[in-house]
Automatic annotation (TrEMBL):
Species lineage: Eukaryota, Viridiplantae, Streptophyta, Embryophyta, Tracheophyta
Name this polypeptide is given: Complex III subunit 9
Keywords recorded for this protein, A-Z: Electron transport, Membrane, Mitochondrion, Mitochondrion inner membrane, Respiratory chain, Transmembrane, Transmembrane helix, Transport
SUPFAM superfamilies: Subunit X (non-heme 7 kDa protein) of cytochrome bc1 complex (Ubiquinol-cytochrome c reductase)
Signal peptide annotation: none
A Gene Ontology cellular-component term: respiratory chain complex III
Family according to the record: Belongs to the UQCR10/QCR9 family.
Top-level taxon of origin: Eukaryota
Membrane topology: Single-pass membrane protein
Natural source organism: Hibiscus trionum
Length: 73
């Protein structure tokens, strides 16, 4: 068998994705919604980490005596 015939019989990557994900509308919609949710979570986590890294020492939590009164003796 040559490679073109073998490729047609096995299917390609896109044909496999079509068979698994996009053949039925309910599975496709679920895949899109789950992908959007997981993508949003990943981007939110990444941006939050970058923001914390760039603002170390400038955040409210990093100031040790903020809001504390000096004791009077």
């Amino acid at each position: 068998m040559d490679s073109a015939t073998r490729r047609r019989s096995q299917g390609g990557l896109f044909e496999g994705l079509y068979r698994v994900i996009m053949r039925r509308n309910s599975v496709y919609v679920t895949f899109v919604i789950a992908g959007a949710f997981l993508g949003e979570r990943a981007v939110d986590y990444g941006v939050h980490r970058i923001w914390e890294y760039n603002n170390v020492g400038k955040r409210y939590e990093d100031i040790p005596v903020l809001g504390q009164r000096q004791s009077e003796e």
